Amino acid sequence: YGIETIDLFGEPVSFVCSELERRIKEALLCDDRIESVTDFEFDIKKGSVGVSFCVNTIWGTVTAEREVNF
Asked: What is the 3-state secondary structure of the chain?
């Protein structure tokens, strides 16, 4: 599962954050083993956005982190 992020380059940070959350949820929730994706937190730096979130699976909760340059 993956998401496209190339089209986020040059967009406002607020749009990037909301779009990242939407795209991550959409990609992960295609898997029947994933029940929800919650607790998104964004770390905004010059030229990049770090995102951390919880993935609630049928086996328990896993935290994940990603960084996107824009």
From this structure: CCCCCHHHCCCCHHHHHHHHHHHHHHHHCCCCCEEEEEEEEEEEECCEEEEEEEEEECCEEEEEEEEEEC
Q: Does the pLDDT of residue 25 top 60, yes or no?
A: yes
pLDDT of 8 over the 90 cut: no
d(CA 42, CA 35): 22
Q: Tell me the three state secondary structure of residue 59.
A: coil
Map tokens 């029940």 to a residue.
35
Q: Which residue has the tokens 């990609």?
A: 27
Residue type, 10: G
pTM for this model (two decimals): 0.85
